[in-house]
Amino acid sequence: MARLLSQTLIHTGRLLLRRFSEPPPALIVAVSPSRVYFNRYHSSESLSLVSPLGSRYSSLFNPPALCKSAFSSLATTTTVEVQSTEHEVVIALGGNIGNRMNNFNEALRLMKHNGICVTRHSCLYETAPVHVTDQPRFLNAAVRGVTKLGPHELLSVLKTIERDMGRKDGIRYGPRPLDLDILFYGKLRIFSDKLTIPHERLWERSFVLAPLVDLLGSAVDNDTVAHWHSLAIHPGGISQAWERLGGESLIGQDGIQRVLPIGDKLWDFTNKTHVMGILNLTPDSFSDGGHFQSIDSAVSRVRSMISEGADIIDIGAQSTRPMASRISSQEELDRLLPVLEAVRVMPEMEEKLISVDTFNSEVASEAISNGADILNDVSAGSLDPDMHKVVAESRVPYMAMHMRGDPCTMQNKENLQYDDVCKDVASELYLRVRDAELSGIPAWRVMIDPGIGFSKSVDHNLDIIMDLPKIREEMAKRSIAVSHAPILIGPSRKRFLGDICGRPEATDRDAATVASITAGILGGANIIRVHNVRDNADAAKVCDAMLRRRR
User: Fold this and answer.
1) What totals of helices (H) and strands (E) does the chain contain, helices first?
2) What is the C-alpha separation between 133 and 96, in angstroms, rounded?
3) Pick from 48, 105, 293, 406: most CB atoms within 10 A?
4) How confident is the model over 166-181, as pLDDT tens digits?
5) Tell me: the pLDDT tens digits for 489-503?
């Protein structure tokens, strides 16, 4: 291999010497299966060295110092890129001035506009500044995508985006509205005055490695990713580099916190279990149908749930109980909007969140326009092809739940067949989340719900509640970022609890609900969706205290 590459480069050099009437200028020479680069630079720049093979063969691309000196004495400027396919890239995002989340959203929009197709997103991290510590906290993330831009063309595009977003020259490591860095580009190693890939300090920066692991983990899904892992300075690839720094133990302990954006705020979903109180505006819900159809009764119920400890109010106007019929968009909106508008302006709702429970994209769009903070979709987009597009454009967090079929068919015999319910739920739900991500909903805005009571038998529900870590583990095999998403569980008053306890009336299942909620929280649930807020909020506080003791 080494001899073949050496001969190839020597032959390329001879062709170049014959082509130019003067000695050739400084060259970037990169050879990969799909591209060849020949870049001539100004005399002020040193020779750029690009290796598609990693450090093992990088010496093949190091010409003698004399050649470097001779090449750099010339002042010709030409760039020729022969290019036939897209290359995979990883780009880091950071910033700590202005509306950090809006800056990220705008950067993603401009990247797409400039020929960078983002295919995966990391989680979102709020991090303490390093080196220059007297400045605001940073927001950090990373994205993976494909582009036909050459590496230096890509760099130029990213620098233009930074400038358009208000980036100015300042002190090194100082405040900036946006920072875009190329972490990896195809199978190339690049060393130039303008661009170094991988960055020499990548492996010591937790705020870079955390989102990078979210994107790549330890999985190797193609040759390019295998190359990226091979660039790690220690054996074991990127995930081992992260573990050497401290890995997951750093989160929350080393000035780095995983967060989820809601509006203009960043939500730390790991500091406690969050309680979601249920407000059904339907006449036919299984537990409290018809109780809260007037605005006054709904507002009174919300006030009560807030006083009992609810952090989120989940408002639903379409029943999703087994065999529930689907109503029109207009009927759902007629039930929902007057209550949503009244709840939104309640003084008690300050610092609280509103979730709207719907699988209808038209209703979702109107709800978000009228103040919904979260969109809770029991179908994860499977019942309305426009749902993901609506949520992507709205930029609100998206709760994606696992369900087979629809409320009328979800408990059919064929929908209750699982080889391993936790593995199958994780796999099927990931496909829905992946579709959402490709539609423009970043992984850092996704929450997941395994769908207790939806397309599940009694035993399936118990398995899910007892083994939430297994669902995360299965998710992690496909996406580390999605495996870190907040998990919601909603066993409240459901029929399987009545079957176990012999309680045919839904309102008699509160004690059973507390037991299942307790098991779920201790297994890693971040959000609990309940009817009886007071008792379950108390259970959550006790579970949180036990978890703090464990840590």
Assistant:
1) 18, 21
2) 12
3) 48
4) 988 877 777 999 999 9
5) 999 999 999 999 999
Q: b/e per residue, 423-449, with b = 16+ CB within 10 A?
A: bbbbbbbbebbbebbebbbbbbbbbbb
Cα four-point dihedral sign 110, 111, 112, 114 = positive
Residue 474 has pLDDT above 90, yes or no: yes
Place of tokens 């007892």: 466
Tokens representing 10? Answer: 């020597």
pLDDT of residue 19: 42
* Contact indicator for 207, 94 with CB cutoff of 8 Å: yes
CA 549 – CA 551 distance, rounded (Å): 5
The CB density around residue 539, as the number of other CB atoms within 10 Å, is: 22
Please indicate whether residue 529 is annotated as part of the active site.
Answer: yes
pLDDT at 81 over 80: no
- b vs e for 246-261, b when ≥16 Cβ sit within 10 Å of the residue's Cβ? ebeebbeeebbbbbbb
In this prediction, residue 288 has a pLDDT band, given cuts at 50, 70 and 90, of low
Task: Return the number of other C-beta atoms located less than 10 Å from residue 233's C-beta.
Answer: 12
Amino acid 201: pLDDT: 86
Q: Which secondary-structure segment (H or E) carries 11?
A: helix 2-19
Q: What is d(CA 240, CA 263) in angstroms, rounded to the nearest whole number?
A: 35
Cα–Cα distance for residue pair 307/426, rounded to 1 Å: 35
Rounded to whole angstroms, the Cα distance separating 444 from 441 reads 8
Strand 196-197 to 189-191 pairing: antiparallel
Q: What is the pLDDT of residue 323?
A: 80
**Are 184 and 442 spatial neighbours (Cβ–Cβ below 8 Å)?**
no
With residue 122 as reference, give the H or E element that holds it. none
Set 301, 493, 494, 495: catalytic member:
494
Phi, psi of 267 (to 5 degrees): -100, 120
> Among this protein's residues, is 494 annotated catalytic?
yes
Phi/psi for 262 (5° steps) reads -130, 110
Q: Which residues are CB-contacts of 536 (< 8 A; sequence separation ≥ 6)?
A: 275, 492, 513, 514, 517, 528, 530
Asked if the peptide bond before residue 347 counts as cis, ω within 30 degrees of 0, the response is no
pLDDT given for residue 487 in this prediction: 98
Among 251, 177, 261, 175, smallest CA distance to 210 is for 251
Q: How far apart are the first and last CA of the chain?
A: 51
* pLDDT average, residue stretch 450-470: 97
Q: Given this model, what pLDDT does residue 286 score?
A: 52
**Does residue 68 surpass a pLDDT of 50?**
no
Query: How does residue 289 score in pLDDT terms, banded at 50, 70 and 90?
Result: low
- Asked if pLDDT for residue 74 goes beyond 80, the answer is no
Strands 124-127 and 196-197 come out as unpaired
Maximum C-alpha span of the chain:
93
Between CA 133 and CA 255 the distance in angstroms is 11
CA–CA distance, 298 with 391 (Å, rounded to integer): 26
Catalytic residue from among 529, 548, 549, 550: 529
Task: Work out the burial of residue 201: count CB atoms within 10 Å of its CB; fewer than 13 is exposed, 13-18 middle, 19 or more buried.
Answer: exposed
